[in-house]
Amino acid sequence: MTDMSIGNASLLRLAEEEAPATKVRSYWQMVGYRLRYDYVTLFFAALIIAIVLMSIFAPWIAPKDPYKTSMAFRLKPIAFRDFWLGTDELGRDILSRLIYGGRMSLLMGLVPVVIATFIGGTLGVIAGFIGGSVNMMIMRTMDVFYAFPSILLAVAISGAMGGGMVNGMVALTLVFIPPLCRIAETATTQVRNLDFVEAARASGGSTLSIVGTHILGNVLGPIFIYASGLVSVSILIASGLSFLGLGVEPPNPDWGLMLSTLRQSIYVNPIVCALPGAMIFITSLSFNLVSDGLRQAMDVRM
């Protein structure tokens, strides 16, 4: 061996010793790493947190009583005296009602999705894992609901039940169960025939242990991503129900209900009338973009 080759080998060995070892990241570490540099997702996630905190601490943040009326101050413009965002058709402070309205809108947006995720996900996993006639019965029942558009089905169910916030949430839950069941069934069907599930069956694992250990760990991700995207849809449909008088009932502050009551005054004070719609748009957009960012961060192909 020449002196030059010996010198190159020594330099290579020295470089390998001084180079830092490549850190092996787990799946969730990679997800966190991707989210850390996804500034759009982080910004809108912070915006969602701000809206949620604003709604929770509304009694301490709102400058006025959202239920207090004053006919002498009807439909006042923005920055009128101490009414920072003006007043509505009954002289109530718009800013205070927007802050309190986040409670109803977020509640009607989140609760139906959470309940539908649990029910629809459970039915989907059962249908996908068992298969056969059980799958046929569950999925054909879900297909019946697919025959109707979501908003029309929600309006029909809520109208049949008599309206109100609770009935509106029940209607939204029934609307969201079929798509979530379909996502869970598809993911479970793809996973149940993989090698590690067959190995668990061959080793004598019980059905509950296989589902809890191997199936749920692989299907919860797609279900969670799809459910997070449904929150924005739920807020929009819930606001539509309130706009039609089938959701939150007056005088409770709700963005959809505020949009309905203020629409009569659009030619008198159009900027004030657009404020509830702006809050609905910003909140729905935030949930939609955060869901999209989570989907990209949790994509194993990346």
Summarize the entry for a quick read.
By secondary structure, the chain is mainly α.
Record keyword descriptors for this entry:
302 residues; single chain; MetI-like fold; elongated; mainly alpha
Strand content: under 5%
**CATH architecture classification name of one domain:** Orthogonal Bundle
The H-and-E topology, N to C, reads as HHHHHHHHHHHH
Give the integer mean of the pLDDT values.
Answer: 84
Termini Cα gap: 45 Å
Helix content: over 70%
> Major beta sheet, specifics?
none
Point out poorly predicted stretches. Answer: 4-9, 18-22
By CATH's scheme, which homologous superfamily of one domain applies?
MetI-like
Which CATH class of one domain is shown? Mainly Alpha
Structural class: mainly alpha
Rounded Rg: 26 Å
Given the structure, what is the number of helices?
A: 12
CATH topology of one domain, anyone? MetI-like fold
Shape: elongated
Count of beta strands: 0
What does this structure look like?
It is a single chain. With 302 residues, this protein is mainly α. The protein has a domain at 100-297: MetI-like fold (Orthogonal Bundle), CATH 1.10.3720.10. Helices cover 73% and strands 0% of the residues. The protein is built from twelve helices and no strands. α7 (150-161) packs across α8 (165-192), α8 (165-192) runs antiparallel to α10 and α9 packs across α10. The longest helix is centred in the middle third of the chain and has 37 residues, at 94-130. It is elongated, with a radius of gyration of 26 Å. The protein starts with a helix and ends in a 5-residue tail after the last helix. Residues 4-9 and 18-22 have low confidence and may be disordered.
